[in-house]
Write a structure and sequence with these properties.
With 505 residues, the protein is α/β, with parallel strands linked by helices. It starts with 41 loop residues before the first strand and ends in a 16-residue tail after the last helix. The chain contains 21 helices and 8 strands. The longest helix is centred in the N-terminal third of the chain and has 22 residues. The chain folds into 3 domains: 180 residues, Serine Threonine Protein Phosphatase 5, Tetratricopeptide repeat (Alpha Horseshoe); 141 residues, no CATH class; 103 residues, no CATH class. The radius of gyration is 24 Å and the shape is globular. A 6-stranded mixed β-sheet has the order 4-5-3-2-1-8, with helices on both faces. It has a two-stranded antiparallel sheet with strand order 6-7.
């Protein structure tokens, strides 16, 4: 079956950047790279973290060490037998508060971003305070569990990540510790009107007050301490890919959220646990020794790349960001073929000029798969063979890029070559199982090959991993495709038996 080509916005990250105005000059307060008298930037690597920062070298080493220790502590707290870590976690730490405001969502102490077309990244200030520690412990949990659980309903995903926030405590991390705001949570649970059934049946959390997250934390904390064996049994079902609602009813039939009397029984148990001094287990975690870290000074072109790469799909960037053009143009003085700079400029250029900019990038950096991905985005309609060739170059340049693999598989599917697309799509999901685009692409390929039940399972996972606060229209499209497949495919086959995932909680 031949499929229509995907729209240009599906082909590369730059096209998804919402930048309505890139004209003018940055003016006062614009970024100065080291060659302009700005701070030196350092890249430090540990076993699990790569840190890029303008902190002084000695502070950068301290921060890299602390981030590595937090990663190891969270991982050891989550798993009895930790699976291999999913690649290096990139962290960008910015000394300047104004810089952080430019790159981060409004009000964020730190944030973790999983853009569809590049690797995950943490952006934070140059200091590691308690607020940053909680955020990083929370997000590292999400980063690590994505590879283990085939299904993660929002209450489990966010509740477990909130449960692990105590692992980020400076000097004395604990597994299962209660947050300082326990009493607030207890009173809130008793009087706010949100109940366990609300979070157990939610497809996504849009509650900006945090009530859904607090209720999810309370539910996980309760299950860890009151129902540890059955909670582990539930995790096994999630790891196997079982429908979360069916899994909950199998493990906790007396707390079925669809039955009012049984849902009320669970709320009463949570009330007793939170409001009447419920006992819980908390154990200290020994910090590992200070890790080894390599340190090198970054070139000016690399500094600009580290910063500008943060803007790929950064929907929170305000439209008055003329500083983006100024920094991109300055990056080109260091490297006339700078991939990130040319890609950002191409995003606001006319079609012909955008294509020429990316041809310039691929000529200068044929080894950079992102340049070929961006070039494919701007290939004119009707030149599908040229687009395919560019995508094949992207995969050849970086065979570990889930973005390149997914986009090439989608192009092959559109060309009626789903058999060739299948191994590429499977590899993309194996590399980055949290990527919605990769999951949907594999689902579409499987559907085209007549493997409807497996396609449905992948589409359900894509809905699960859709980030909170994402575009409502995009989420609705995911849910509508899921509903169509549910109607067409029926019930997916029962998952194969699996051993316990080994999650420590």
């Amino acid at each position: 079956m031949r499929h229509p080509p995907l729209p240009a916005t599906a082909w590369a990250p730059m096209v998804a950047i919402a930048l309505a105005s890139l004209s003018g000059c940055a003016g006062a307060g614009s970024f100065r790279c080291p060659e302009q008298g700005g701070r030196d930037w350092h890249e430090l690597r540990t076993e699990h973290v790569v840190l890029q920062t303008d902190l002084p070298s000695w502070k950068a080493k301290e921060l890299a060490g602390e981030l590595e220790r937090m990663f190891v502590v969270v991982r050891s707290g989550l798993f009895r037998n930790p699976p291999p870590a999913p690649g290096l976690l990139r962290v960008v730490a910015l000394v300047s508060e104004s810089d952080l405001k430019r790159f981060a969502p409004r009000g964020a102490a730190a944030y973790y971003h999983r853009p569809e077309f590049s690797g995950p990244v943490v952006v934070m200030p140059g200091t590691l305070g308690e607020a940053q520690r909680r955020v990083i412990a929370h997000e590292v949990t999400l980063h690590l569990t994505a590879q283990l659980f085939a299904r993660q309903p929002p209450w489990f995903r966010e509740g477990l990540a909130s449960f692990m926030e105590s692992m980020g405590t400076e000097g004395s991390p604990t597994l299962g510790g209660a947050p300082e705001h326990w009493s607030w949570l207890a009173s809130a649970h008793h009087g706010r009107g949100m109940r366990a059934a609300d979070v157990l049946t939610a497809s996504r959390f849009d509650d900006r007050t945090g009530a859904a997250y607090a209720e999810s934390w309370a539910l996980v904390h309760f299950l860890v301490n009151r129902e540890p064996e059955r909670f582990r049994a539930l995790q096994v079902r999630f790891a196997r890919g079982q429908d979360p609602t069916a899994a909950w009813r199998e493990v906790f039939p007396e707390w079925d959220p669809a039955a009012k009397d049984r849902a009320r029984t669970l709320d009463e148990a949570l009330d007793r646990y939170l409001n009447h001094g419920g006992k819980y287990t908390s154990r200290p975690v020994r910090l590992p020794p200070a890790p080894r870290a390599t340190d090198r000074t970054m070139t000016a072109a690399e500094v600009h790349a580290a910063r500008l790469a943060l803007l790929w799909e950064a929907r929170w960037v305000r439209n008055d960001a003329s500083w983006i053009r100024a920094e991109a143009e300055h990056a080109l003085t260091h490297d006339p073929g700078h991939v990130d700079a040319l890609a950002l400029l191409a995003a606001s250029a006319k079609a012909g000029e955008a294509l020429r900019l990316m041809e310039r990038a691929t000529a200068a950096h044929p080894e950079d798969g992102r340049a070929w991905l961006a070039l494919a985005a701007f290939v004119p309609a009707g030149q599908e063979e040229r687009r395919l060739a560019a995508l094949q170059r992207a995969v050849a340049a970086d065979g570990t890029s889930a973005a390149a693999l997914s986009i090439l598989s989608a192009a092959l599917l559109a060309a009626g070559r789903s058999g060739e697309a299948l191994p590429l799509a499977r590899r993309a999901v194996a590399l980055e199982p949290w990527k919605g685009y990769a999951l949907v692409t594999l689902s579409r390929v499987l559907e085209d090959l007549g493997q409807c039940p497996e396609a449905l399972a992948l589409q359900r996972r894509a809905v699960d991993v859709s980030p909170e606060g994402s575009d409502a229209a995009a989420w609705n499209a995911l849910a509508e495709r899921r509903a169509r497949l549910e109607s067409a495919c029926g019930t997916p086959p029962a998952p194969a038996p699996a051993t316990a995932p080994g999650a420590a909680p």
